[in-house]
Amino acid sequence: MKQFDSNPSDTPLANELADSNQRLQIANATSVKKPKATRIFTVSNQKGGVGKTTTAVNIAAALAIKGLTVLVIDLDPQGNASTALGVEHHQGVAGAYEVLIGDLPMSQAIKQSSTVANLYCLPATIDLAAAEMELFTNFAEADQRYRLRRALSEFLDTVPAEYCPDYVFIDCPPSLGLLTVNAFAAALEVLIPIQCEYYALEGLSQLLGSVDRIKQSINPKLKLSTILLTMFDSRTRLSTQVAEEVRNHFSNETLNAVIPRAVRVSEAPSYQQTVLTYDKNSSGAIAYLEAAIELANKDV
Ligand SMILES: Nc1ncnc2c1ncn2[C@@H]1O[C@H](COP(=O)(O)OP(=O)(O)OP(=O)(O)O)[C@@H](O)[C@H]1O
Ligand SMILES: [Mg+2]
């Protein structure tokens, strides 16, 4: 019965808890830089289920909790970002579809998140599923890729200063279709979440090729500035290997913060919350807070 003799404050679990508490204290005490001009990110990866939406909403929430004004544009007809931000997105609610296809000013469709002050969302309804086809058939080639960029710049030019977002995150669907192209055209920076699993790097070169093509033909200002490792499982060698390989290829872009695979992260959306509000002391919340601070304070 050796374990009853050991000091309970010296167990691996106790050490992990002490470590998380310390990280949380540091993260809470660290302020984030307010950017001089709005930073516009597209959160993209044509692979499905790698953590795009989770990353978009949690980094957005973390920056809003830190006092910045943040807008999430939900460009995925699944509407998962709208759900996680507690924003209504049933059919009939004006959202990204009306802005892209119907010329509705963005200011008339943006809603406030139910959970965090200074956090806003342009919701996606299921109508957005038809938008790819309608962009293609209803608009000239010169126009169809720039619908979001135009709407967003008009919004940023006209919104009163106190509501002007410091950060915009565009949550993309898992494809390289016209919705994603609109996001690439409207953004200044690309944030790629990479899931630490076997096929993580598969398709990455295709994505990088697309970013290059977009830069050359549509948006010369676009920069792949940030890569975030998600769903990291410290118990597997595979996760460590994937993380190392990504860091070897993208040492400047990859954030030091790594998002662990954590149940609280996946539970939060069913409560219409981000993990930052659902369980702010959990490992996932701390990691997203650290990632957001690093993203905001790192020179790009
Ligand atoms: N760190 C994490 N730990 C545990 N589960 C996670 C984590 N990150 C994301 N998940 C879960 O994995 C699933 C996929 O995540 P998410 O929806 O963010 O990916 P996505 O890239 O946006 O997917 P899609 O390509 O369908 O848009 C979700 O069920 C989410 O709750
Ligand atoms: Mg998604």
Tell me the distance between the termini.
55 Å
The tally of domains stands at 1
pLDDT < 50 runs, ≥5 residues? none
Please compute the radius of gyration using only Cα atoms. 20 Å
CATH fold descriptor: Rossmann fold
Q: What structural class should be given to the helix and strand makeup?
A: alpha/beta
Biggest sheet character: 8 strands, mixed
Number of helices: 13
Annotated CATH homologous superfamily: P-loop containing nucleotide triphosphate hydrolases
**Large-scale geometry:** globular
Strand content: 15-25%
As a percent range, the share of helical residues equals 40-55%
Please identify the top-level CATH class. Answer: Alpha Beta
**Small-molecule binders:** adenosine-5'-triphosphate, magnesium ion
Looking at the overall shape, the CATH architecture is 3-Layer(aba) Sandwich
Quote the average pLDDT: 93
